[in-house]
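Severity: low
Component: inverse-folding endpoint
Summary: output formatting inconsistent between runs
Steps to reproduce: submit the following structure tokens with default settings.
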């Protein structure tokens, strides 16, 4: 539990409102409290700052599982830096193969990372509209004994599909493989227990469901598995083991210059998550945001891309209107002028756009968005 701190340097009422809400999968809209604490500078070597790092690391593990034996490490850069850090550190040099379950751009990115690092890799592509085929996964693990690790994206924000991590983890462990989950867009916003889901390595980012700002990602791992990774890394700066060892030895010290303002903002975001009622309460808010959005958009004639039983509350894909007059850039501009920024589509086979439900966004914001959408229809 964090001690609630006074935001010493500025009255949050002096923080201006944002000109629009970011209805995206991250970066996303943040609270005035999160933005306010970034007014102060911090020294990366100072005990005051390093103690914040250690508090953050401890809290992340507490959010990830109730079981002992897990640890966390923070890593500079975007979330993809942390994904690459895990892939390049957990895979032993000269042996092992990574199996990636893909159904969107972010699963495919893990494959690309492995290819860049010359790590043997195979993908099982389930297509963009469906969760992974669990029977196909089981058969692949039975027949290809060279596979040592399996990776999947929890919430694939290409569409907003939520992949069945617990069921995948069960199969992976039945076949005695290691399991890596990219929970970039879900951790902190959807209840998640690494131990119950059989996850060995997990990554997320500061600017997603915990509602911090961009600047670093984080890795949560079984401590004994991370300890086996010494010497594996293909990169100096992205060596997750070396970063973890330095933070352990230096009581929160980073190897290289850290994003101090972002870390302090993240601590404030964790305090606000706690004050909201934790992950369960935030999940409930995101679910309500999503419900209001989908019901309202359907009344306006829009259709969702993903089946309801597979849909996450993180981001929702809608088919673009079948009108020659429809133009996403025009639609986007009209909504932005009314105070809402949405996301273009990332699908390869259909024309779609996406609207995020996460961040410092509330049901009344979604109601206002729907009014803006109705007023912005021009086709």
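Observed output (run 2 of 3):
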């Amino acid at each position: 539990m964090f001690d609630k701190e006074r935001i010493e340097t500025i009255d949050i009422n002096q923080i201006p409102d944002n000109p629009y809400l970011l209805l995206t999968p991250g970066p996303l809209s943040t609270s005035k409290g999160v933005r306010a604490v970034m007014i102060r500078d911090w020294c990366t070597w100072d005990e005051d700052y390093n103690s914040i790092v250690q508090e953050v690391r401890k809290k992340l593990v507490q959010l990830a599982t109730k079981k002992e034996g897990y640890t966390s490490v923070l890593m500079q850069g975007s979330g993809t830096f942390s994904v690459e850090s895990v892939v390049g550190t957990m895979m032993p040099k000269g042996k092992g193969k990574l199996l990636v379950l893909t159904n969107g751009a972010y699963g495919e990115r893990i494959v690309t990372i492995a290819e860049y690092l010359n790590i043997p890799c195979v993908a099982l592509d389930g297509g963009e509209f469906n969760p992974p085929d669990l029977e196909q996964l089981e058969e692949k693990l039975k027949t290809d004994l060279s596979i040592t690790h399996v990776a999947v994206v929890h919430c694939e924000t290409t569409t907003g599909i939520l992949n069945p991590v617990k069921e995948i983890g069960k199969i992976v462990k039945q076949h005695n493989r290691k399991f890596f989950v990219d929970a970039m867009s879900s951790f902190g916003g959807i209840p998640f227990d690494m131990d119950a889901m059989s996850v060995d390595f997990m990554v997320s980012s500061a600017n997603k469901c915990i509602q911090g700002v961009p600047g670093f990602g984080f890795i949560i791992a079984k401590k004994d598995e991370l300890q086996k990774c010494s010497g594996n890394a293909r990169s100096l700066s992205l060596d997750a083991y070396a970063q973890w060892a330095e933070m352990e030895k230096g009581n929160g010290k980073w190897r290289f210059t850290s994003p101090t303002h972002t870390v302090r903002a993240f601590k404030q975001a964790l305090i606000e998550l706690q004050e909201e009622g934790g992950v369960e309460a935030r999940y409930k808010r995101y679910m309500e945001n999503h419900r209001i959005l989908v019901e309202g958009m359907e009344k306006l004639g829009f259709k969702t891309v993903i089946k309801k039983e597979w849909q996450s509350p993180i981001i929702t894909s809608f088919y673009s209107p079948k009108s020659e007059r429809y133009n996403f850039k025009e639609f986007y501009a009209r909504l932005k002028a009314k105070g809402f920024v949405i996301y273009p589509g990332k699908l390869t086979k259909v024309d779609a756009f996406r609207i995020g439900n996460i961040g410092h966004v509330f049901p009344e914001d979604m109601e206002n968005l729907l009014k803006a959408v109705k007023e912005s229809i021009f086709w």
